[in-house]
Amino acid sequence: MNLRGIAWGALVAGLLGVVPARSEDAGPTVFLANPELVSEAVPELRFARWPVDRWAAIYVRVANGSVVGLALKQRGGTNEGGPVLRLSQGAERRVWIGGTSDYFVSPRTGAASDREALIVLLAAGRPPEFGNLAPIAGTQLPDVAPSAETFFHQLATAPWIGDVEIHMVPYRVSAGKGAAASVAERTGADVQLVFSGLPFDKVLTVADILAVETVDLLSPLRIRRHDEGSAVTFGYKTALDLTALAGRIEKIAADLGARAFVSVDVANGRLELSAP
């Protein structure tokens, strides 16, 4: 960690915890009923109630690092299966990741468990032209699917990106069948991650790595509509202290070729990542 990181690291070490995220930055409104699944289980995706109709495109970031799209039908709804799902206003909406698409989860890699994530693009009003960001999965994964890095680059450069929220909803899948092993949920703190000066696709890749490729909590991420040139902020639930989390993010940024420094505003429970 650089000198700036060392300066605030000593301050953080003396604290018992971090200040919770501010109420106006409330957490994700898209989540899974159960983030701990067994092989061939069907995840249930839930959308919090909303005062207007919304449209969703749902993708899956699978364990091998590729991304595929889903053609789904809302349970009990009248929508035809397709790449864009209409969510009517009102009560909480529930979607089963399976059913008409016959897609469950990707074949296990042989590890004891794998982490994957649903990537949900959500927009109010008229549906954006979500486009062909990734091939649609059927009973099997497509032979050709973009890597997560390629997917996020295409997403970040889409002309409609300013109209959508992006939700990353991670889950863990056991390699075996039968009852899922009970995993004690570790306690964690809610912090705000603030990215300034980084290309938006790099921010999305960092978020993906935090959600899928770490051993941290299964924490859904909500990335608000993005305005060109503005900082990107999202909440993250972590079992790490701020010093460890800052070090992890700095290493991720370095691996992505984004030279950066990390600073923290402890009073507001924020970690800030900025690039020159």
Can you give a write-up of this model?
By secondary structure, this protein is of the alpha+beta class. It is built from 4 helices and 14 strands. Strands 2, 4, 5, 6, 8, 9 and 11 form a 7-stranded mixed β-sheet that branches. A hairpin with a 4-residue loop joins strand 13 and strand 14. The N terminus is likely disordered.
Descriptive tags:
single chain, disordered N terminus, 276 residues, four-stranded mixed sheet, 17% helix, seven-stranded mixed sheet
Q: What is the topological layout?
A:
Elements: H1 3-13, E1 30-32, E2 36-38, E3 44-47, E4 54-61, E5 67-69, E6 85-87, E7 93-96, E8 113-124, H2 148-156, E9 165-174, E10 189-196, H3 200-212, E11 221-223, E12 232-238, H4 242-255, E13 261-265, E14 270-274
Parallel strand pairs: 2-9, 10-14
Antiparallel strand pairs: 1-3, 3-7, 4-5, 4-6, 4-8, 8-9, 9-11, 10-12, 13-14
Percent range of helical residues: 10-25%
Describe the main β-sheet briefly: 7 strands, mixed
Mean pLDDT rating: 75
The general outline is globular
Brief characterization of the structure:
The protein has helices at residues 3-13, 148-156, 200-212, 242-255; strands at 30-32, 36-38, 44-47, 54-61, 67-69, 85-87, 93-96, 113-124, 165-174, 189-196, 221-223, 232-238, 261-265, 270-274.
